[in-house]
Amino acid sequence: EVQLLQSGGGSVQPGGSLRLSCAASGFTFSSFAMAWVRQAPGKGLECVSMISVSGASTYYADSVKGRFTMSRDNSKNSVYVQMNSLRAEDTAVYYCAKVFNTGQVSLGFDIWGQGTMVTVSS
Amino acid sequence: EIVMTQSPATLSVSPGERASLSCRASQSISTNLAWYQQKPGQAPRLLIYDASTRATGIPARFSGSGSGTEFTLTITSLQSEDFGLYYCQQFSNWPPWTFGQGTKVEIK
Fold first, then answer.
1. Residue B82 dihedral angles phi and psi, to the nearest 5°
2. Are the beta carbons of A24 and A113 closer than 8 angstroms?
3. Across the A/B interface, how many CB contacts are shorter than 8 Å?
4. Which of residues 5-64 of A touch B (CB under 8 A)?
5. Which of A48, B17, B25, B65 is 20 to 30 A off residue B94, Cα-Cα?
6. Residue A58 and residue A41: Cα distance in Å, rounded?
7. For position A106, what pLDDT does the model report?
8. Whole-number Å distance between alpha carbons of A95 and A9
9. How far does CA A35 lie from the centroid of its chain?
10. What is the distance between the alpha carbons of residues A71 and A50, in angstroms, rounded to a whole number?
11. pLDDT, position B62
């Protein structure tokens, strides 16, 4: 079965850190770029980071740049996001997602993790 | 950053009727657009990519159209399972791949 299984998350005080993990199965993980998408309570979707197939290139939304670090381990079929200097506005459900592409053209996120809640509050 | 604007915010539709959802990009994105459906407590599901191609397993009552800056998702003969939130997302320009704010399709 094709799936992404997330772990990590929870509650943390402002300024704290958390690490989210996402384990892939059922597809050739090392052939696809991956992303993290978040959704604040009652709000829309925000794509916060993306990582290339090899992991050599990462991209971040301005809202998390300098605070979040995305990485991947193709030997473990896993992707991660290290979140530092967390703020109240980072409170959200975080989803990992597989990038669907043809060649070099990205077309959508076709596989999503189940989501994990991150709450930043004092 | 490319801004995606969806309208209307809420669409009230009776089962069996047709629904048309609009998505507008702040600059041309060719056909680099995807549509997603999200139900409460669930992750989004990819419906349409490349503006008009249905993803695997998506029923034919879902169709997408448009290019440049104007896009439409049409759901013909709405079924009970089609009610929920719908988002468009551009894949033309990173950073980042921006989403619209969503359209809620509710039962009339």
1. -90, -10
2. no
3. 70
4. 35, 37, 44-48, 50, 59-62
5. B65
6. 26
7. 86
8. 11
9. 5
10. 9
11. 98
**B48: Cβ–Cβ under 8 A, 6 or more apart, which residues?**
B33, B34, B35, B54, B55, B58, B62, B63, B64, B73
Instruction: Pull the structure tokens for residue B30.
Output: 């060719």
Element (H, E) at B71: strand B70-75
Measured CA distances, A95 to A80, A81, B55 (Å) = 11, 11, 19
d(CA B107, CA A109): 27
Higher pLDDT, A89 or B94: A89
Q: What is the predicted pLDDT for the residue at B53? A: 97
What spatial distance separates the first Cα and last Cα of chain B, rounded to whole Å? 35
How far is residue B37 from each of residues A25, B42, B47, measured CA to CA in Å? Answer: 23, 10, 7
CB contact under 8 A, A100 and B97: no
Distance, in Å, from the CA atom of A54 to the CA atom of A9, rounded to the nearest integer, reads 25
User: Are the CB atoms for B108 and B80 separated by under 8 Å?
Assistant: no
The C-alpha atoms of residue B8 and residue B67 are separated, in whole angstroms, by 19
